[in-house]
Specification:
Blueprint lengths: L8 H41 L5 E15 L3 E13 L6 E13 L2 E2 L4 E3 L2 E3 L4 E14 L4 H11 L1 E16 L2 E2 L3 E12 L9 E3 L3 E6 L1
Antiparallel strand pairs: 1-2, 1-11, 1-12, 2-7, 3-4, 3-5, 3-6, 3-8, 8-9, 8-10, 10-12
Length: 211
Amino acid sequence: MSQIDEKSPQHCAKKKVINISKHKKKLIYTFTTFILSILLLILLVWLILHPAKPEFALKEADIYQLTLSGARLLNSSIQITLVSNNPNQKVGIYYDEIQVYASYKGQRITLDSSIPPFYQEQKDHNLLSMVLVANGLAVDPSFSYEMGRDQMVGRLVLEVKSNGHLRWKVGTWVSGRYMFIVNCVVVLPFGAAAPAGPLTSKQGARCLTTV
């Protein structure tokens, strides 16, 4: 008579649970390996291409108005032209948003001006022109004093600042958003020796870009 090896229902249920558990582990391992492979590929492409940050330069600045109404309310109108350059040979740049304003002696003297989003091809450059204005903008009491000092010296130091977000594009892959900050410093003739009309600087100035 052959021996009947019959296992209890409890034992069979336990074995079935073990098999399901192994199947899930295999799926999780496969999925994790796939995700890690994709991330490793993206990192490898990133390291090989090593995109350089965009370059900005202030091509021209014209101050048409910079006057106080009352003791602390400033009216300003400044036209600027920025040049943005993509130095990369294989990486394009999406600029999602750029906010630009002017500053003097650490004080904001215009409101923000927005540049619409745009895409910049590899090794390409764009001219960005805008007018920065303010009407009745509150400034520190020292503003008038600082302006008087610079008028005696004969020059005015203006800062043009911008910030925004960008994305790198490699082939069909587009990166996440990165914040960038740009700071441009330009010196304009000021005072009695300055030519008539708007204060103008056409010498240009390189800008510091931080990503």
